[in-house]
Amino acid sequence: MMRAIVSRLLHSVEKLPIRIVAIGILPILVSELATADTVVLRNPVVRIEEEVYTFKNPDNGSGPLWSYGCTQIVRMSGQVVVSAMETGVDVPPLCNTRWRLLLREQGAWRVIAEADAYRQREPCPVAITSEQDLFLYVNDSLEPPGTHYGPCEPHLIHFRMQENGMKRAAIRPQWAGKPYYTDHSYRGYAADPARGELLMLNIDAKTGVQHACLLNTEGETIATGFIEFPIRSCYPQVALVDRAAYVLAIGDIVEPVKEWREYKFEQTQRQWDYVFRILYFTWTPDITSQSFAAPIEIANVDASGGHISNQDLWIAPDGAAWIMYTEREVQNELMRDRFFPGKSVINSLHLAVVKNGAITQRRVLMEGSASEAPGHARFHPTPDGQLYVVAYCGGENAGNRLLRLLPESDTPQAIPIPLKRPMSSYCLASVRAGNTPSFTIDMLGLGGGNTLSYAWIDLEPAS
Question: Looking at the domain that runs over 2-461, which CATH code has it been given?
Answer without folding.
Answer: 2.130.10.10
